[in-house]
């Protein structure tokens, strides 16, 4: 256990770590290139589980000390419903930012969240593996932490408090004395543990080549025992097959399997996608980032859940044959756009006033700057109907300014609120601030910045987001 003086020093250090909320921005734009492809939904996802936030379900009280003020907040477990089937339990790793009602969440690598630059990220995973709900014997958990007796609610609160101390550097304490003892024990005991592997991904998720060849490989990365592979919807009519390296058609794969698009000779220039899907328990410690602006979560428990990933192939007879992917780059504060060229002539494009030429058989990555909390929407278009869209939110930091709420959380999270309880979970009563909560719906106003890209002009619109409370 920590001494009182150590606790005071820890509290002072955390108060110094508090930061101001970064204003959000929204960006849209386009990049022109060569080839033919149909538009996809654009949401950036390297694969894995996709889930919808149901709310804060098992929680108790905590007190956040911030800028000389004490704010009472709920602390505990959120629940999410997985697309295709399954349930997830998560903790917040983003204390100063709100959740959005029914927000969509994507399984995300640590490097694309605040965990990527957090030296204590591995300790958070250790806490998840050694506390509730992974350890559901509450008597044993309490004994190990010398915490008297714990309920599900106080165990969840103590676990969340310990996580916030590492994820946000927050000066936060559990209101319940036994929950606080658990939080202190977890903080003191935590050890560094490596990031868990993705439940399912396809690498790379875009390839290109010439008609009449096998295009790939796309490598399967998964912890599932077996993955179902689905060919393009029009495979029977187009003659396109998904095969292994030897050309044998495949309908299932395992970790490390290499998949190819077998495109018939003489096929018209075009594109096709394959999908991979499995049912598994998503690894504890996987990060979940929102497709909108909603506080980042980390996985504490998973039922058998549906995980999926897609990969796309583009082909042509001659000329430049590009493949284009996008990935958040928190280290550089932007989005990496990677263009490859498997054609027989150079692929040239201009981005942010700089011309880039990709020789045949090579690839290059260009980082497009995006501000923290900025939503972006990049549409990639070109001759012959080529169109590809990338969108998401660059959410790499945990800085924020919490604003006290005045109501107990409701059964569903209200816009920009922390969430609530389920009818089956007895939560605390009283005046609870909502985690990171401003109840105002973000309002958008904007300015435009013009960037010249391949094939003509395109516009990136940057809109400044502000809460109604701040107007």
Can you tag this structure with a few keywords?
five-stranded mixed β-sheet; single chain; mainly beta; six-stranded antiparallel beta barrel; disordered C terminus; 6 helices; 471 residues
Describe the structure.
This protein is mainly beta. It has 6 helices and 26 strands. The protein has a 6-stranded antiparallel barrel with strand order 2-3-4-16-15-5. Strands 24-23-1-26-25 form a 5-stranded mixed β-sheet, with no helix packed on it. β20 and β21 (354-358) form a beta hairpin. α2 runs antiparallel to α4 (152-167) and α4 packs across α5. The two termini are 45 Å apart.
Physical arrangement of strands within the biggest beta sheet: 2-3-4-16-15-5
Report the oligomer.
Answer: single chain
Strand content: 35-45%
Taken from the alpha-carbon principal axes, the silhouette is elongated
Beginning-to-end CA distance, first to last residue: 45 Å
Q: Let me know the number of strands.
A: 26
Short structural summary:
The chain has helices spanning 4-17, 121-130, 138-145, 152-167, 177-189, 235-238; strands at residues 24-32, 50-66, 69-82, 87-92, 104-108, 172-174, 200-203, 206-210, 214-222, 227-230, 241-243, 252-253, 258-262, 270-281, 287-290, 297-302, 304-316, 322-329, 334-341, 347-351, 354-358, 363-369, 374-381, 387-394, 443-453, 456-466. It has 471 residues and is mainly beta.
In terms of topology, how is this protein built?
Layout lengths: L3 H14 L6 E9 L17 E17 L2 E14 L4 E6 L11 E5 L12 H10 L7 H8 L6 H16 L4 E3 L2 H13 L10 E4 L2 E5 L3 E9 L4 E4 L4 H4 L2 E3 L8 E2 L4 E5 L7 E12 L5 E4 L6 E6 L1 E13 L5 E8 L4 E8 L5 E5 L2 E5 L4 E7 L4 E8 L5 E8 L48 E11 L2 E11 L5
Parallel strand pairs: 1-23, 8-17
Antiparallel strand pairs: 1-26, 2-3, 2-5, 2-6, 3-4, 4-16, 5-15, 7-9, 9-13, 10-12, 10-14, 11-13, 14-17, 15-16, 18-19, 19-22, 20-21, 23-24, 25-26
Helix pairs in contact: 2-4, 4-5
């Amino acid at each position: 256990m920590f001494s009182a003086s150590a606790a005071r020093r820890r509290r002072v250090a955390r108060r110094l770590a508090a930061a101001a909320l970064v204003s959000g921005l929204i960006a849209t734009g386009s990049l022109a290139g060569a080839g033919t492809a149909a538009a996809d939904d654009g949401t950036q996802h390297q694969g894995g589980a996709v889930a919808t936030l149901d709310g804060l379900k098992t929680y108790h009280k905590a007190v956040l000390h911030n800028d000389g003020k004490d704010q009472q907040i709920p602390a505990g477990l959120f629940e999410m419903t997985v697309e295709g089937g399954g349930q997830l339990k998560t903790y917040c790793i983003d204390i100063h930012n709100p959740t959005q009602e029914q927000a969509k969440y994507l399984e995300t690598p640590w490097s694309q969240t605040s965990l990527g630059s957090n030296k204590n990220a591995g300790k958070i995973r250790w806490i998840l593996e050694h506390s509730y709900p992974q350890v559901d014997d509450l008597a044993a958990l309490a004994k190990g932490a010398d915490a008297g007796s714990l309920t599900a609610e106080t165990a969840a609160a103590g676990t969340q408090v310990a996580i916030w101390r590492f994820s946000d550097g927050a000066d936060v304490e559990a209101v319940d004395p036994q929950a606080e003892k658990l939080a202190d024990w977890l903080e003191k005991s935590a050890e560094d543990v490596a990031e868990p592997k993705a439940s399912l991904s396809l690498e790379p998720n875009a390839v290109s080549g010439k008609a009449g060849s096998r295009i790939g490989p796309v490598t399967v990365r998964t912890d599932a025992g077996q993955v179902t592979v689905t060919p393009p919807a029009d495979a029977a009519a187009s003659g396109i097959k998904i095969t292994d390296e030897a050309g044998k058609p495949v309908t299932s794969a395992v970790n490390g399997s290499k998949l190819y698009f077998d495109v018939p000779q003489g096929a018209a220039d075009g594109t096709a996608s394959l999908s991979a899907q499995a049912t598994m328990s998503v690894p504890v410690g996987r990060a979940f980032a929102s497709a909108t602006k909603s506080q980042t979560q980390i996985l504490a428990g998973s039922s058998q859940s549906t995980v999926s990933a897609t990969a796309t192939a583009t082909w042509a007879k001659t000329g430049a044959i590009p493949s284009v992917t996008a990935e958040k780059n928190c280290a550089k504060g932007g989005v990496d756009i990677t263009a490859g060229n498997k054609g027989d002539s150079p692929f040239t494009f201009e981005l942010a006033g700089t011309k880039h030429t990709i020789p045949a058989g090579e690839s290059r990555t260009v980082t497009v700057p995006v501000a923290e909390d900025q939503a972006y929407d990049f549409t990639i278009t070109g001759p012959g109907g080529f169109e590809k869209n990338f969108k998401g939110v660059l959410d790499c930091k945990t800085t924020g300014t919490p604003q006290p709420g005045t109501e107990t959380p409701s059964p569903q999270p209200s816009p920009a609120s922390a969430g609530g309880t389920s009818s089956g979970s007895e939560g605390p009563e009283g005046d609870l601030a909502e985690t990171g909560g401003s109840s105002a719906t973000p309002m958008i106003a904007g300015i435009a910045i013009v960037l010249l890209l391949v094939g003509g002009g395109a516009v990136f619109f940057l809109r400044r987001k502000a809460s109604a409370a701040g107007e």
